[in-house]
Here is the input.
Amino acid sequence: MNYSILLRQMFRKFINTESRFYKNLQTLYHYLTSIKKIRKHKYLNFNVAITKHCNLNCAYCFAFSPLAHEYCYDVDIFKKDVFRISELTDGKIRELSIAGGEPLLHPRLTEFFDIARGCFGYYPKKSFGNIFVITNGTLLARQPESFWVSCRKNNIEIRITKYPIKLDINALKQTAGNYGVKLICYHETDKTEKRMDSLKLDILGRQNIKDSFIRCFLATDCINLYNGRMYTCGVPVNIDVFNNYFDQNIISTDKDSIDIYKAHDINEIFDFLRKPIPFCRYCDWKNTKTNLPWRISKKEITEWT
Ligand code: SF4
Ligand code: SF4
Here is the structure.
């Protein structure tokens, strides 16, 4: 569970998020928690986005999914990469999130479950080896029995981010329970009032990278593995989607990630992940908008700039 997100949601209920007081509080909070980012991690938490597209099209989506063509991550690349991570960590990670886009759109989803669990042990008492799939939940009701059986067999937990759309959570919980699968729901209230933060990109790349990194709540909290490389966040991973749709040229280079095959050990990867990357110059967290009402994307560049 990401407690920093829960804390922010709680604050927003009581304080006007457009007020100067809230902005100052937010800056203070980011500076105070920056220690967590630069502290060396002991165990790895990471995401793999197995699709870039999604069936929900939310405005402000950090993965740029409303702009994405259908894209499904290569199972063999995933297998090779998680095997390498397992070698580096002795099969002991804290968490792996199988995410997207919408991961349930991947036609070979359960193969990811088998491969991931084959690489990483599960030690619930010590909170190691949690593997979960993060979904908007809309495709869960139509999953075949093989999906639930695979979740059960591989100890895969389902985590639903709830949006203001019709979704029978109780029925899904019932199904999951029948198969012995753990299912939890973020933002679970009867009246779902999902709020969104916007990612404000500075297309000209004029931001100070240290300042952006310290203000950023994705840095080190949303570590992404993609094509043999580890990133401190998912934004450079998906920037091609933004560039292609809006004909922009925001550049991500190899300096924004670390090659997991060239790293000598996991500590070298941890060292890399706790530092700003050149790409941080494109993120304007000072002027980002928070607590926006959820809506469908109009696919306008202003949703991300
Ligand atoms: S459900 Fe998630 S991935 Fe899909 S468009 Fe919305 S924010 Fe993006
Ligand atoms: S590039 Fe840097 S500032 Fe931007 S989201 Fe990633 S870590 Fe945060």
